[in-house]
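Reviewer 2 asked us to include a model.

Predict the structure of this chain.
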Amino acid sequence: MTQEFNNVWNAIEDNIVLAENLRLRSELMLEISDYVKQSGLTHEKASIALGTTLPHLNDVLTGAIEKCSVDRLVNMLVAVGFTISLGIDRAS
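Predicted model (structure tokens):
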């Protein structure tokens, strides 16, 4: 019997609340990583632009998801001109 999941976080995390939080944080982290790559800024200058410290930016860039809160990630993106949209669907 094959089990199907709608995202990788549901596959590796039994707690659906934590899985959804991980999914959201990973999406935000990917956006920040893309911003840093596309900006051409050094990591130090990117951290300043993002309104964070270099160690916090490094947590994002190295995928240390356990060290990244949704609040911090949102604040970083907004600091460089992103707007955050939220879509909410009822789980079936």
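The chain is about 60% helix and 0% strand. The longest helix spans residues 16-39. We have added this to the supplementary material.
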